[in-house]
Specification:
binds fe (ii) ion, seven-stranded antiparallel beta sheet, 18 strands, binds FE2/S2 (inorganic) cluster, Rieske Iron-sulfur Protein, 5 helices, alpha+beta, four-stranded antiparallel beta sheet, Naphthalene 1,2-dioxygenase Alpha Subunit, Chain A, domain 1
Length: 355
């Protein structure tokens, strides 16, 4: 069961073009394509005639033509042409999904189209901001999407999985942590004060093992699949701070650098996930350069690929036996409870509507 009344990232913009593309989201097979003027469209990937996947068909102008018997469908999913006859059979149409392009991603609404409000898309302005250097990509992961959310809400794993990149022992052992739960979000704030920087942080900040910095990691989960990370380090950054939650968009302090990172996990099935991520960096007092954007991307790519290996292995081992929790799991436990609650609410509403 998945949350349906929400925007999920479904593709990178260039993946949706004039060749129909098939992708499964929340167990639903969908075909994506664009009209000649570039408008993106998403249909159920199943012809209403004899169930041929429409992604096997072709585009004829602004119509999608089924591969099997040539029925054509317009942008509203209505059949407009049946070869060999002049009338259109009643009900000759396929389901469509709201789809929009925003922050250089494609977003799809899987639930009631009447509720699809673009303003509900999780903001990620750093993707195109001039003073942040951003680059990201897509991973296909063979795991339950909630394992990715667990991972991002418990960054103690940086001290183990990511010791060659964004982690060191201090992040696991010495962080001060607070967790804040709201109706549809969970925020975990971690401050690791007065510790040497991790390898990636040394590269980004121009530091060595002998430097001592304060590092912040503010992790914000928003229902049901978005996790934004606001992280960075600077010497003395924690001075005078109360370790509260007001610093989500903390300006990078003098002599420091910051990462702003959006992870969006979209369920394909119960055990497979589309993982879209993007990472923006900023070094205080220095202009964004292509070289540093590339270096920051490579560091995060290496780190997230380390996570990718963990996710696949976890899923292979997953079964019905109970797992134990640690204090670091507070955020992910709250996030999972929110997802369960929202799925139950939607199921309840659908049951009432069906009565
Ligand atoms: S199955 Fe699509 S036209 Fe027959
Ligand atoms: Fe990680």
């Amino acid at each position: 069961m998945f949350v349906k009344n929400t925007w999920y990232v479904c593709a990178q913009p260039e993946e949706i073009n004039r060749t129909p593309m098939s992708r499964t989201i929340c167990n639903e097979n969908i075909v994506f394509w664009r009209k000649e003027d570039g408008t993106p469209l998403a249909f159920e990937d199943r012809c209403c005639h004899r169930r041929m996947p429409l992604s096997k068909g072709k585009l004829v102008g602004d119509k999608l033509e089924c591969y099997y018997h040539g029925l054509q469908f317009d942008e509203a999913g209505k059949c407009t042409h049946v070869p060999g006859q002049t009338t259109i059979p009643p009900g000759a149409e396929v389901g469509t999904y709201p789809i929009v392009e925003k922050y250089n991603w494609m977003w799809i609404w899987m639930g009631d189209p009447a509720l699809a409000d673009e303003d509900k898309i999780v903001p990620y302005p750093w993707k195109t901001a001039d003073d942040w250097g951003d680059k990201g990509t897509y991973f296909y992961v063979k795991c339950d999407y909630r394992l990715v959310i667990d991972n991002l809400l418990d960054l103690s794993h940086l001290g183990f999985v990511h010791r060659s990149t964004i982690g060191n022992a201090a992040v696991a052992e010495a962080a001060r942590i607070r967790t804040l739960k709201e109706d549809d979000s969970v925020t975990v704030a971690r401050w690791t004060v007065g510790q040497p920087p991790a390898p990636t942080y040394q590269k980004m900040g121009g530091w060595t093992d002998d430097d001592i910095v304060d590092r912040w990691q503010i992790i914000e989960f928003q229902m049901p699949g978005a996790v934004r990370l606001f992280t960075g380090a600077a010497k003395g950054a924690a001075e005078g701070k109360d370790f509260g939650f007001t610093d989500i968009d903390l300006p990078v302090p003098e002599g420091g650098f910051g990462f702003h990172n959006l992870n969006f996990v979209t369920p394909e099935t119960e055990t497979t996930t589309h993982y879209f991520w993007s990472n923006a960096y900023q070094i205080e007092g220095k202009p964004v350069t292509e070289e540093m954007t590339e270096m920051s991307y490579k560091q995060i790519f290496t780190a997230f690929h380390q996570d990718w290996e963990v996710f696949n292995k976890q899923q292979e081992n997953w079964d019905d036996r109970p797992t134990i929790d640690t204090i670091q799991d507070a955020g992910s436990i709250a996030a999972r409870a929110m997802i369960d609650r929202m799925v139950a609410e939607e199921q309840g509403e659908m049951a009432v509507a069906a009565e």
